[in-house]
C-alpha cells in the first residue's frame, strides 16, 4: 500500500506545492527514467525497513527527483535526477515500459513558493528527452539509458595506422575514442550495421588493449583485454570472440569484418 504522504499527493490535482517543494504529476519518458539513479524502491538497496517520508525529504528537498508508479499504483520507486552507472540489460530499474504508468516529479522551488506549473512541465519535456546523435552517426541506447553514438570511418590513409594513431584520429577529428560494447545486444547491433558495408581493410580497430608486460608481441591468452576507461565496463565482451587461429600475440583488439566478425589481436 502506498504510504500516506504519496497517497495524499496522488489524490490531489496535477500540481501540489508545499514548503518550497512543488509536486507535479507528469509521466517522465521511460527512456529517460531508466537512466536515473534509484534511491528507494524494490530494486534499490534501501527498499526494506525505511521511513519513506525521510527518504523523500532528504533526497527531494534540494534537487529534482521522481516517484515512478507501476502496475496500477501497487509498485513505486524514487529516483534522483542523476545518471546511473548500471550495466544490466535490458534496463537498470527492474521494470518494463508496459508496467510503467506515470510519475510524480518533486521540484525544489526554494523561497519562490509555487511557480508556473505549465513552465515547469515544458522544461521537463525538454530536459527529459534523449539526446540525438549527430548526422551520419549511429546510436544505441545502453541499459543505463545513455545514448551511445559511434561513427564508421572508411577512408584510405596514406600511412598504415596503428591502434594508437587510430584512437588519436578519432579524438582529434571527432572528440571520440575507438568503439566498445557494454552488452552483447549492442555488439550485435554494431555488427548488423557494418555487415552490408565494404571496407578498405578487413581489420577494424576496437577500443581495447591489453598489457602483456615483458611479453609484448607474444601475449598469449592469459592476458585479458580491457576497454578504454569510460567506454565500457564489460571486459568479457573484449575477450569472448577471439579467433583461435590468430588469438595469441598482439596487444590491440580488432574485429575482422570478413571473418564472421571474430576478433584478432594485433600489435
Automatic annotation (TrEMBL):
InterPro entries from the UniProt entry: C-type_lectin-like, C-type_lectin-like/link_sf, CTDL_fold
Alphabetically sorted, this entry's keywords are: Signal
Output the Gene3D superfamilies linked to this UniProt entry. Mannose-Binding Protein A, subunit A
The region annotated as signal peptide is: 1-17
Q: Does the keyword Signal apply?
A: yes
Q: Does the keyword Transferase apply?
A: no
Every copy of the C-type lectin domain together lies at 149-267
Q: What is this protein called?
A: C-type lectin domain-containing protein
The protein's organism comes out as Caenorhabditis japonica
